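[job 0412] stage=fold_complex status=start
inputs:
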Amino acid sequence: MTVFDARSDAASAPPASPPVIMLADVMKSYAMGSEVVHAVRHVDLRVDRGEFVAIVGASGSGKSTLMSITGCLDFPTSGHYSLEGVNIRDLDDRALSRIRNTRIGFVFQGFNLIPRMSALQNVELPLVYGGIPHRERRQRAVAALTLVGLANRLDHWPNELSGGQQQRVAVARAIGTNPALILADEPTGALDTTSSLELMALFHELHAHGRTIVMITHEHDIAAFASRVVELRDGSIISDRRQEPTSVGA
Amino acid sequence: MFRLLDSVRMALRGIGSNWLRTLLTMLGVLIGVASVIVLLAIGTGSSQSIQNSIQSLGTNTLTVFSAGQFSSSGPQIRFNQLNAQSITLLSNRENAPDVKSVSPVISTSVTATNGTLTYTTSVIGSTPSYLAASNYTVSAGRAITSADVAAHAQVVDLGASAASGLFSVGSNPLGQQITLGNAQFTVVGLLAAKGSSGLSNADAVAIAPYTAVEDQLTGESTSFSELLIQGRSASTLSLAQGEVESILAAQNDTTVASLPFTVLNQASLISTATSSAKTFTTLLGWVAAVSLLVGAIGVMNIMLVTVTERTREIGIRKAIGARKLIVLFQFLVESVVISFLGGVIGAAAGIGVSHFTIAGVKPVLASYSVPLALGVALGVGVLAGIYPAYRAASLRPVDALRYE
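[job 0412] stage=fold_complex status=done
writing structure:
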């Protein structure tokens, strides 16, 4: 499992390694007709390696926008964002794609698997884009699916899998590239309670192995599994506290 | 880096996901490419058959007709004649250096009989040079001779169709007597088949000395309705035409401009026919090109629909690291594969259809048409795919992911 154990990276990284996420005075505004809507206002946020952060807030609090910016899917209107010390604003499409491909692993609410590809092919896809040779990407994809407990579902199509299983394929896809950051947008939003708990157990395990996870959720009992909770309201951070995560065995 | 093979595999998966739609889209290009090939083959085939039929009339020949020239006032009629003197004048090497031979032509259609077998044939009364000028070769026996002409000999060379119509298989027509109209002629030679050429069957002929034909069938006359003149070469045929026209004008006390005869130049006939056949082929090619254009629009339409349908998938792909160029390439490859596959099947279908006779024309596959059609199919794929693929590549990932 060393491939997915981020601690080995952490151990070898220089002691003054930059924070995974560094947001400084980030603003995001949209023009809605004649009005300007500020979805994110003056957000400062630092996430260090190995943290498991839940970002909570009601709908419209700006957490999805913040997630798009953090995931390099969108740019802030103003302010500064660097991922592992790299300023995102300076990058072109090619470099941004490379960062999304190798440094970030996405887990979405709606699973977002590609329908006409098997579980294995879905997990392999980012590795294909990363130019990983065929044999190696097969090995890594199988290992990732084994880790999420789907070793016996490699050749199943997404529509042959339950919601919980599909989300675990998505997690396997996210960790297959060994990213610096796992970014989960309402990962339990489409899951029942049992599947949600299973997914949180998986996140807990990844966190225990040193993974950095940022999870957006509006459910406080899901946020309880994180070691740090950041609360957003009207685009601003209103609280940021560390906590003892709920144990998953419950 | 991301490799070509991976993206082709991905494109094929995309195509396979909706095979019925892919097939129907392909059909547009398929029909376009097939019609390009077939219509060009029809154009080429008809152009060749026109050329063949003109060429079978003879090699490097001029035909002088006097028919239809009797409208001028009465007393002049006697001058407006093609007669033995014309032949003598035209055969003069000094005055007409580019004329190789001059043959009078008297033709009439009669029913030929041999015992119980009858055959309607056209009897051509002429001189031995007619055979060479008209591309007839003797396959058995002998040609009519100048001696036959001088002796008014009732001998005949039979064309291949006439011979098979009058003689049963296995019998030897040489030396046999046949009846042409009311006269007995002896078959002295058989002509090799030239093949049917367009409207008239060049093998349904009986060629006899013109003196004998005048005696027995048409009645004696001082003039001929037609002269067949063979030039020395294709390049000097128009020189020969000039010589013929001025000699005939001098003989009839008139100018070349008001010459009471029609002189048909085979070379100019061919070039006219060829150029009109080219126009015809080009026209057919354009018709086919329009159907190919319709196919291209179909491909573009479906690619636009596909991009819209798969907006979310594009968002996912971008989120997990596909850059613009890769997304562009994926959809471009899809469109090119659809078009090119349609093109290949269409080319095969076109080649297949070109083996059949269509509307009386035996198509001849133009050598350039298959690579042309396949190249165009490839181009259609790129042109029809580039805009939809660009649209897909330009989607912002954050918008594409939210697309429902």
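[job 0412] summary: Chain A touches chain B through 28 residues (CB under 8 Å).
[job 0412] exit 0
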